[in-house]
């Protein structure tokens, strides 16, 4: 039967920006005399840096709301009752004030993923790293300080597993008088990929911790909060996201992987996609049939509506390896519908795109292999040509022994994970506060530059002794303006899998990657120091390595962790402390007056 699809530029779930009066905190903490110069720096430099562009004020109310998916209702934690949460629209260089009210039953923090927050780590968000959590019934006023970012980023909860439902997009437009480095699209659409559990997500987490095994996989994958036609109770129009397009027009899809655990292959049937940006930075155009997007990453892709008017599925499936022990993954397919406007008889069901096999590692790196920065006059590439600090960080899935082999991990053990064989222990006072106020006993500053043992990290069979990590709350101190290279080396200690590593406070240049063990003599000769991509989250390939470079010019405490949530829970995390520079404008700003108490 023919139907008429009306063209529409309205996108459900999008909250459009409104400008409000600028806001600058009027009270600061009274602190010791040694910090008077820093207060002076805030008064003299802080306002000028933060308010060059307009400053707006938004309200985030964290509260429970009931949503029905997969035939059953469930209370979930949301922001402003929305799932996914509200989209924040901004202009490059803008500062936004967000009043976060916690009206839920659990502690919460909010992180602005990919925003470097120059000199101001206080409202970056990771729990017990830069702040203690916002307790139920409390409020915390957070600044989002945008600087060089342009494109698509996102925000999410950064405590427990609440980011499964507490997340949303951040869209940063070019400054007035500038424009996109590609043809302006006709319409822009956020595409947020996620996961859904029938049970409470933190209960799933707690059960995994209690048994020592892998937590239960999600029951569905999501596109813009909806599972799509292929799931139970999801065939009605309200349970599948639909994007109406006009033939001949171009659409900018701002794709975000907000999933807790799953890397995803994403494609649109019979349509190619052209990648033009990632992680808040533009790239040279890269056209592909599909993309692989790892947890925490964003991609800006152009979709040309150039096919015969019909209905077409966009779809995402999990990319998963680690067959030995971690074979728990969501093997379902989420779909949304691209529907052309006009009169026609749509195909039923719509065409599904061709996607790689779930464990196709070679397919998973195709986009990463082709990404290049613009590296032009308007978007220069400032990759350090040499480095003063060289670090090699192994990222591993490990295990701890259990009494009588009674746990649900590999061979009766308890799963853990590590960086350089140290499984991170979360403190009870945040590291930033301990650093700033010189509180001893919270963390150590001796995180190793290299792995404690050097062996064939990616061998098929490794001695069991390598599975046991040490534990501690260790960080690495970096000198201001030092040039840093980190080689992330994947291992096959317990299970070879991918690790999307995310660094707070910085974006970095991805100068090299490969399979196998990193060779410090040969592999740097193949680095791309001309136009490497500029990202904040990069996935270490299964049985492979990635090299990144950045200049440590943002003083503060900055979290480094895998963005697979169970790996973070198990301890694959650490932090950098970047020292102050000598000039006032190179020093960390003092804290706001309403930091949540520990």
Automatic annotation (TrEMBL):
Q: What is this protein called?
A: Laccase
| Swiss-Prot/TrEMBL keywords | Apoplast, Copper, Glycoprotein, Lignin degradation, Membrane, Metal-binding, Oxidoreductase, Repeat, Secreted, Transmembrane, Transmembrane helix
Protein source organism: Vitis rotundifolia
Please state where this protein is localized: Secreted, Extracellular space, Apoplast
Q: Does the keyword Transmembrane helix apply?
A: yes
Reaction(s) catalysed by this chain, per the record, are: 4 hydroquinone + O2 = 4 benzosemiquinone + 2 H2O
Query: What biological process terms from GO does the record include?
Result: lignin catabolic process
User: Where does it primarily localize?
Assistant: secreted
Q: Which Pfam families match?
A: Cu-oxidase, Cu-oxidase_2, Cu-oxidase_3
Top-level EC class? oxidoreductase
Q: Using the record, list the residue span of the signal peptide; answer none if the entry has no such feature.
A: none
Q: Where are the transmembrane segments?
A: 29-49
Q: Which EC number(s) are documented for this chain?
A: 1.10.3.2
Q: What does this protein do?
A: Lignin degradation and detoxification of lignin-derived products.
Its needed co-factors are: Cu cation
Q: Which residues form the Plastocyanin-like domain?
A: 62-176, 188-342, 448-581
Write out the GO MF terms: copper ion binding; hydroquinone:oxygen oxidoreductase activity
Q: What's any one GO cellular component for it?
A: apoplast
Sequence similarity: Belongs to the multicopper oxidase family.
**Co-factor: note:** Binds 4 Cu cations per monomer.
